[in-house]
Amino acid sequence: MTVPLPRFNIILAAFLLVVLPGCKTTEEKIAKDAATNMRFHVETNPDGTRYNFPVMVYRANPIKIQVEAEAAMDEEHMDKAEVVSADEFGGYAIKITFSERGRQFLTRVTSTHKGKRLAVLARWTEMRTLAAPVINKTITDGVFVFTPDATREEAERIVLGLNNVIKELKKPYVF
């Protein structure tokens, strides 16, 4: 049986129109499945107990700081994350906007721990301390901006995964 070529092309075109829009690229699948956990730990003095642990900060010139084992805040306290421009030279930062409850935690942490570092630990494809800025002032607006020890692509991947987790946490829990 021979099928005329024009008829075959019409069938093939119809098949492609039906199937291809439903296909997702690898990037779309990664974006949908991306997940990032982020924890904020306050610097403390090493006392040899299990209530604190050391972390290495800044990969180029690493420094070791001791942080409290219990996180002060995590993604449950956040509303959204975004990569923002930090300067006119192409620098970038990660901006975390906290929920009302998170804003209260951030205010409390930054007012009671001035002069200490707030270590930002993230887990996406790896576990890394992204930053540990010194707390210089009380943050009352619920917005925390830091320059991550990460490439721009990593920062965008971290933010994408973090927003996915935040969105998932905001869904109502149904039994």
What does this structure look like?
This protein is of the alpha+beta class. It has one domain: Gyrase A, domain 2 (2-Layer Sandwich). It has 4 helices and 9 strands; from the N terminus they run H-H-E-E-E-E-E-E-H-E-E-E-H. The protein has helices at residues 5-19, 26-33, 100-112, 152-170; strands at 37-42, 52-57, 63-68, 73-74, 78-85, 92-98, 118-123, 127-131, 143-146. The chain has a 4-stranded antiparallel beta sheet with strand order 4-1-7-8. Strands 5-6-9 form a 3-stranded antiparallel beta sheet. Strands 2-3 form a two-stranded antiparallel ribbon.
Short account of what is shown:
With 175 residues, the chain is an alpha+beta fold. Helix content is 31%, strand content 29%. The protein has helices spanning 5-19, 26-33, 100-112, 152-170; strands spanning 37-42, 52-57, 63-68, 73-74, 78-85, 92-98, 118-123, 127-131, 143-146.
DSSP helix count?
4
Mean pLDDT: 87
Overall geometric form: globular
Q: In terms of per-residue confidence, which ranges show pLDDT below 50 for 5 or more consecutive residues?
A: none
First and last CA, distance: 57 Å
Q: Which bin fits the share of residues in helices?
A: 25-40%
- Named CATH architecture: 2-Layer Sandwich
Question: Over all CA atoms, what is the radius of gyration?
Answer: 23 Å
CATH class (first level) name: Alpha Beta
Query: How many structural units, i.e. domains?
Result: 1
Number of strands: 9
**Residue share in β-strands:** 25-35%
Largest sheet geometry: 4 strands, antiparallel
Order of helices and strands: HHEEEEEEHEEEH
Tell me the CATH topology.
Gyrase A, domain 2
> Spatial order of the strands in the main sheet?
4-1-7-8
Structural class: alpha+beta
